[in-house]
Amino acid sequence: MAENKALDVELTTSSAPSTARLLLKIAAAWVFPGLGHVLLGRIGRGLLFGGIVWSCFGLGLAHDGRLALHDPRQPVLSALQVVANLGMGPVDAVARFGIYGRPVYAFEGFPDWRSPDAVERIFRERARSGVSIYGTAYLWTAGLMNLLLLFDVWDIGLGRKV
Amino acid sequence: MRSHFLHMLIYSVLVSTFFGTLFRDSVRDRLRLGGLLWLAMVGGALVLAYAMYPFPG
After folding, report:
1. The domain containing residue A133 runs over which residues?
2. Percent of all residues in chain A with a pLDDT value above 90, rounded to a whole number
3. Residues of chain B in Cβ contact (below 8 Å) with chain A
4. Residues A109-161: pLDDT tens digits?
5. Domains of chain A: total
6. Who among B2, B21, B22 is closest to A130 (CB)?
7. Which of A96, B18, B32, B45 is most buried (most C-beta within 10 Å)?
8. Residues of chain A with C-beta less than 8 angstroms from the C-beta of B2
């Protein structure tokens, strides 16, 4: 009994730092897509995943992809779009800053095509572009792929996957 | 780049490579799954487009 307790304590103390390290690696994977796998020693896989995700994100921005804004008319759908964008990590905020002038994630009130709000105007202008639909698909895919990579880093870190 | 077909090819290459690498461990299996996914996406789109061709826009 006492031995079991000692073993429990040992397991708890030895697994706590490794869990913290794994969480840090997952955070790194979110902050910089591909980095989580590199930190786990899967360098080739990390570089490939990073290359794919960053390419997708770059193609999205280059093709007038719309960085989603929460729309009160479609609260659930637009929230899911924002989550997909957020999968890319802080670079999403940087991109919003570059495109909208500030890291904005929601329309101010109900969107109106006559609104003088700069964010709404930029959003509409990008939507009018002939390639915006492709750019948006690239952006969502990049974010969603990176979210999947976080689960992959988690599985590899726990030893569930090679 | 405004070519819809080229976008489809690029997108399907990226996505099939991603999932092939994510879900398989050996290079052979990755190529197999990736190729299958790529064929399903591109071939599926072409088949669907062909099937829809007679219908007016």
Report:
1. 2-158
2. 72
3. 1-2, 4, 7, 10-11, 14-15, 17-18, 21-22, 25
4. 777 777 778 888 898 888 888 899 999 999 999 999 999 999 999 999 999 88
5. 1
6. B2
7. B18
8. 130-131
